[in-house]
Write a structure and sequence with these properties.
By secondary structure, this protein is mainly α. The chain has helices at 17-36, 38-54, 66-95, 104-117, 123-126. The N and C termini lie far apart (77 Å).
């Protein structure tokens, strides 16, 4: 029987941040996905590691391990994401649903109807002449 190697987390140092990312990214991604769903998880995980990288000088191993620190950052970002989502939903409730903008089919139908209703200019078309404004014949 072959034992599967256990991924050893990096030492309590952020000197090799790529090792920290490699060790914890899938675990943090699973956690975030469970909390907010697959759609937003990639963005929140990326923001988690970006925040950790930017604040790596402030990391204190005496206060918490790297895993705990990353989970704390991810949890704060999840809460931030949810607050923004609630604000957006409340704003939509206040202002109602967005007005229906005409789609491509409606614009084409309107344009075709307008062309049919427009009176023919009569001169060139009535005489059987078919010329463009610049004087060239249509293809």
């Amino acid at each position: 029987m072959t034992a599967t190697p256990v991924e050893r987390p990096p030492d309590q140092s952020l000197d090799d941040f790529s090792a920290v990312f490699d060790a914890y990214s899938s675990e943090i991604h699973s956690y975030v996905t469970q909390r907010i769903g697959r759609g937003q998880a990639d963005d929140v995980v990326a923001e988690t590691f970006l925040t950790a990288f930017r604040k790596r000088e402030r990391y204190d191993p005496a206060r918490a391990g790297i895993r705990t620190w990353l989970y704390g950052i991810a949890t704060n970002l999840i809460h931030k994401h949810r607050r923004a989502e609630v604000r957006a939903l409340r704003a939509m409730d206040r202002h109602g649903p967005p007005a229906d903008l005409p789609g491509h089919e409606e614009r084409v139908a309107t344009q075709v109807s307008a062309v049919r209703l427009r009176p023919a200019s009569g001169r060139g078309r009535a005489a059987g002449k078919s010329r463009r404004r610049d004087g060239s014949a249509p293809c």
